[in-house]
Every structure is written in C-alpha cells, then in structure tokens.
Amino acid sequence: MKLAEALQERADLNRKIDELRRRLGNAVLVQEGEEPVEDPAELLKELDLAVARLEELMAAINLTNCKTKVNGMTLTALIAKKDALMLKLSAYRDLVYTAGQNTNRARGTEIRVKALLKASDLQKAADQTAKEVRELDNLLQETNWKTKLAE
After folding, report:
1. Phi, then psi, of 72 in degrees rounded to 5
2. Which whole number is the average pLDDT over 17-21?
3. How deeply is 43 buried, as exposed, middle or buried, from its count of CB atoms within 10 A (0-12, 13-18, 19+)?
4. How far apart are CA 95 and CA 113, in angstroms?
5. pTM of the entire structure?
6. 105: pLDDT strictly greater than 90
7. For the chain, which end, N or C, has fewer CB atoms within 10 Å of the first or last residue's CB respectively?
8. CA–CA separation, 3 vs 140, rounded Å?
9. What letter does residue 148 receive in the DSSP assignment?
C-alpha cells in the first residue's frame, strides 16, 4: 500500500467513526417497548474495529513519515514546515487586510489612523509564502504516491 492510499483510508475511517458515534447515539436509547432502528451492539463492534484499524494506520503513517527523506528532510519535518508556513500565510493575509483598511473620517478634526506596514509589501510576502506552501504540498503529494507504507 502506498502512503497516499493509507492517508485516504485514514480520512475515510475518521469519517466512519464520526458517523458510527452519531448512529450509536441515536440507537442506544429507545422508548420502553420500542426497538432501535439499528442494533447498538453491532454498531459498537463496528466502531471498535474501525478504531483498531485507525490505530494501525496512524502508527504506520507516522513511522513512514519519520523514515522517509526528501531533499534531506523527513516527511515529518516537511509536514511541520508546511504547517508553519500555513500559519505564517494566515497571519500575513490578516495583516494585509488590516493594513489595507481605509478609516474614513467625517471631519478633519477626528483622529487619523495610518498603517505602519505597507499592505503591498505584506501582500508580496503572503504571495511568496503561498507559493512555498503550494510547492511543498506538491512535493508531499508526489512523495506520498511514490512511498510504500512502512509496516
């Protein structure tokens, strides 16, 4: 199995577990004399199996990410770098918005507010960071499809 396939299965399992939790919540209590729409014991078994499979996948994915190197960095380090860049990008985009605000004054005697950083400079930095995120994401996706999952 390729790493990308394991990541897709992990996402599917997370959705399935959420759905099973909801279905269990609906099936665990019924009015006296009524039957549940679904058997809660069967749903619980299915939940346990899904959680166990998720645990196996998460361990294998983490092991693979720690062992696999690209451009001298592990996938774990590359993922951390991408997460940090995404945080930086979000902050820069917020700053671009704030610095670009035009505070209108009704009268010339009102307090004037000005941006201390140029929105255009912040936008250039945000664009460069977005490019780095895209390139890193492409590298991660390519590597995920080429890398065999550690078992």
Report:
1. 80, 5
2. 98
3. buried
4. 15
5. 0.83
6. no
7. C
8. 10
9. B
